[in-house]
Amino acid sequence: MNEFQLHKPTIAFVAPLVIFLVIVQFYPSFAGEQQLATDAVSQDTITYMFMLVAQVIVAASLLLYFRPIYLRHFPFKFSWLSVVVGVVGIGLWVGLCHLEIEKTIMTAIGFGPSGDARPAFNPFEHLPNTMWRIVFLLPRFLVLALLVPLVEELFLRGWLVRYVEDVDWEPLALSGLGWAALIAPTIYGVLTHPTEAIAAIAWFSLVTLLMVRTKNIWDCVVAHAVTNLLLGVYVIWFEQWQLW
């Protein structure tokens, strides 16, 4: 019990993201699937929706359970600058993704295009009616605009940057961090978004600058949430399903 208590803060900041990413590995790719001709829903679609609901339940449960630890480390507050950064962030992300600089670089150095773990899922193509689409979109937006910002920023700014700075990380504030700590979130972003690496470098670096400016993790969460919410709206409005 004492050992668990000693490591509980690490578990609190790391476990939600790790479990979240494990569930992502079970996302289907939807490669080659055609528009539905009947009211049937494919097995891949059902699997995808099940995994989304699983992410909502598991991540929300862990975040609520460890909430006292998060608030002990970082009392809640945020500035409106985080909203501005989130809006700027969506412009950066979408613009750089559409340039497809990564594909050009990989081709130039002799590598083929790398796979993209994101399922290019079009709910208006794969789901037969409005009810099914609502059942999909509710957990999808919960994951995109709430849970991803929380689990990633708590991991990155709550644990990773402080652990990189000093293995005795718990007493550290989000100020006076060295270059290794400041670069760590961007490296994570590139590793988890390999086909959007340039956009990841720009966006994760932008949020790190916000962290340096405000020294507040919740500003990073809010900026992340604003960008992701606007990304979801952009994906649906302009049918850019590959950016889910």
How would you describe this structure to a colleague?
The structure is a single chain. This protein has one domain. The radius of gyration is 19 Å and the shape is globular. The protein is built from ten helices and no strands. The protein is mainly alpha-helical and 244 residues long. Helices cover 71% and strands 0% of the residues. Mean pLDDT is 89; it is low at 1-6 and 32-38. It has helices spanning 2-24, 43-65, 67-73, 81-99, 101-108, 123-126, 130-165, 179-192, 197-214, 217-238.
List the helices and strands and how they pair.
Layout: H1 2-24, H2 43-65, H3 67-73, H4 81-99, H5 101-108, H6 123-126, H7 130-165, H8 179-192, H9 197-214, H10 217-238
Alpha-beta classification: mainly alpha
The global form is: globular
Low-confidence stretches: 1-6, 32-38
Number of strands: 0
Total domains, how many?
Answer: 1
Tell me the radius of gyration: 19 Å
> N-to-C terminal Cα separation, in Å?
41 Å
| Count of discrete alpha- or pi-helical segments spanning 4 or more residues | 10
* Helicity range: over 70%
Order of helices and strands: HHHHHHHHHH
How much strand content do the residues show? under 5%
Largest sheet: none
Give average pLDDT, whole number.
89
Brief description of this entry?
It is built from 10 helices and no strands. Residues 1-6 and 32-38 have low confidence and may be disordered. It has 244 residues and is mostly helical.
